[in-house]
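Quick one - inputs below.
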Amino acid sequence: MEHVAGTDAANPTDGGDRPDPGGRPGKSEQTRSLILETALRLFRERGYDKTTMRAIAQESGVSVGNAYYYFGSKEHLIHGFYDRLTHEHITRSRQELRGVRDFGDRLQVVLSVWLEVAEPYHAFAVQFFRNAADPESPLSPFSAESYPIREQVTELFADVLRGSSLRIDDELAELLPELLWLHLMGIVLFWVYDRSPERAKSRAFVARTTPMVERVITLSRYKVFRPLVRDAERLIRDYIVPEGTTPPEQRG
Amino acid sequence: MEHVAGTDAANPTDGGDRPDPGGRPGKSEQTRSLILETALRLFRERGYDKTTMRAIAQESGVSVGNAYYYFGSKEHLIHGFYDRLTHEHITRSRQELRGVRDFGDRLQVVLSVWLEVAEPYHAFAVQFFRNAADPESPLSPFSAESYPIREQVTELFADVLRGSSLRIDDELAELLPELLWLHLMGIVLFWVYDRSPERAKSRAFVARTTPMVERVITLSRYKVFRPLVRDAERLIRDYIVPEGTTPPEQRG
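Output:
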């Protein structure tokens, strides 16, 4: 689908994919948003596997070619959804982190904001999770295709650390943002299967685990802990989140 | 389906569900085994969701009523499969543990044996995993229905610890078997998605993580670690593997 998404000839020339000076989204951005909303609704209603690009275009009131211009495939739609969720997560987290210095409080902010921005999509996530659980699926948060999103969220966790009063040394500072991202993935898994009203259990789980994470980090400064930190780093690189995962070409 | 599995009238009276004195399985045990083998083959060929009890009975050459006598539902068949796998895992592990005293070596034995006994079912596991990933599914290893199996494997891990030269105190000795079982669940997840030939990557993963587990246990004896151990224990009880999960009624 690369040839469709990447065709310059199909690119609207009005620059409409950027917000206009008044801050309102341009027409192109509106169309893109409409297709994404429609797709998410159809995925919820019919299931991800059974929803075709043709149906998404039809329900959005655009041509199939136009839908493919914005999203090269259904997988691109999911990545469009991930992008939006990530953007909201990061923007809101950065706002709420202002003036917060305690590491535990900062971590709590970022994890709680994730639960809040993801909440409207819970029903979809449950239905969709089967497709994203396989680490080799492009839809998995561990895939090469998800690298840009993973990188942004990891950078947010680096900020959580840097802006805190917690003292950590260089070796740990490099590994920790990724470990915190893995911790978030654990919370996502817990949340996907959480049947409590408005995911109260997930929120309690975050509140319970955050001080534990802080404690582990504090303990990891002890010298006796160091060989374990190094082993963990190598293990993560070799098996879980390979370093230098080639980011896929930028998507339109 | 309880009324079917539990109906005494349907119980063969020849005591055929126990091995005869010569050590060969009785006729009833043979039928049970045949139904289970057939079901596993059909699950592999047609998928778990699309395979009916009727089809399993038909392919096994038994009546539908007879199939239901041995396995009250498809879920009971999966538990029959879990039982068999667990029995083989435990029996072979106990044989290979004889004379091994080093904790790391003992852990390595138990995890490696699991990979060996599970290997023939890898293709099925991949297909089936979607049904077992939900912790509230009776097919999940975390469910109340899986309690008897979880308990047996946890007991095996208690043996791994007791028979080793590793010194651990009482508080930790109570929590550790369950943590080791959770570690095995992590390896199962890794294994399900492992595409390497004959799951070479999973075996390497076990070899890499075993010394790390040993290191964590050694470190956890330090006093400074204790509050974390207690938090972890409470977290596991409250959210992951609740204590006093009521075991379901014994299955025929």
